[in-house]
Description:
Blueprint: H1 3-6, E1 13-15, H2 26-42, H3 51-58, H4 62-74, H5 76-89, H6 92-109, H7 119-131, H8 133-147, H9 153-174, H10 181-209, E2 221-223, H11 230-238, H12 241-262, H13 264-271, H14 276-304, H15 307-330, H16 334-363, H17 368-397, H18 399-418, H19 425-433
Antiparallel strand pairs: 1-2
Helix pairs in contact: 2-6, 2-8, 2-9, 2-10, 3-4, 4-7, 4-17, 5-8, 6-7, 6-8, 6-10, 9-14, 12-16, 12-17, 12-18, 13-14, 14-16, 15-16, 15-18, 16-17, 17-18
Amino acid sequence: MSSKDTEINHLPLVQSTSGHKLYKRRWIILTLYILYAAINAFQWFEYAIIANVIMKFYGVSSVSVDWTSIIYMALYMPMVIPASYLMEKLDLRKISIIGVLGTATGTIIKIFSLSPGRMWMTYLSQTILSSMQVFILALPLRIAATWLKLKSMCFGGFGTQLVQAVGFIIPPMVVKNTDNLEQISDDLGVLIESLAAFTSVVTIIILVYFPARPPLPPNQVICEGRESSFLKSLKRPLSDRSFGFHAVAYGISIAVFVSISTLLNQFMLFYFAGSEEDAGRIGLIMVVLGMAGAIVFGHVLDKTHSYKRTTLSMYISSLLSVIAFMYSLKYRSKIFVYISGALVGLFINAYMPVGLELSIELTYPEPESTSSGILISMTQTLGVIFTLLLGWLFSTVGCFWALASMVFFLLVGTFLTAMISNVTKRQDVFKQELIKLNVCKYVVVFY
């Protein structure tokens, strides 16, 4: 199957004359994708959420622990071009095997890092895991094109996000803060070896079972080839002022969320001693509320098609929620920290799919993969910068003013969002052609 057959977001929709069929095993394919994507996502904040314990065990600084999360963003840009080339040349099975083997390798390497002085092996593991993110993020539309009705990929997004949320709460529950380094090593061993065993099982199943494609496509809708220059499709959105504003604003919003998530453990311990598990619970709530918000605001977009208004409203709400979080920490009100943290997750995490939908409206008829790729690249770049900046400010001027810097950036993002033109290019075309698409409003994006 060529890339023209599978990259549905590049291509117009036509009716198939050769038959179509939905196979029951599509749910197995989707489940396998969710499992290995979730295993990878679980390990993004695995160390950052127990930063104080990792610092003690390996004898490293907080910045060193932050880099176990930052690596996930820093490697996206250098990996995206070679990964995109492979995605064009290889079928779904081969891409999935690359992703799961890389994830398994990175996870298993951590088993050999369970000793003080082996932090470098942790970095090696995180480097391999993060390099697989490019393949994982590109697969949902590929799987939808090959096996599913498009809306079924909603379950893939929610499944991965849910396990990422669990990744906030399990490490603090398993790895306890103690002065006994042997006990920490044992706790880390339980966490890592359990994950490695599970990853190995998923890897074997994918190697044995995961097919390249079904005998027949899943929909009456199939893909009709169209020549498209990648450089041209990249240049056109970048020359659009409104899309440029949106790309920067989108990157700011998600980068703020990632940087706060990375330093959440350190923020909580700064104000509340022994609150490692509270940090994990707040991280869990932030992601779960974001999933719920994606459903709600996706429904709003379905009904109103008010893309700019919805996006701007969510951006303002995100700004206010971070301000509330900042003051809740300052005044040491744990209950309000939970509430404001939940609101941060509700508005910023749910902003991801809404922001992607707006980008598609602004750049139509350019491929969705182009606009989303630009947004993800902006997110990863700013995510690295903001996390390093937030960590530096936290260590020099304290938590309150560190978070105040994020409020400033969100204020800039709000202004940029207000400057976006209120255009609905895709919806205008669909109305003219009397086409009604039922597209999933939740997209998996690891910031």
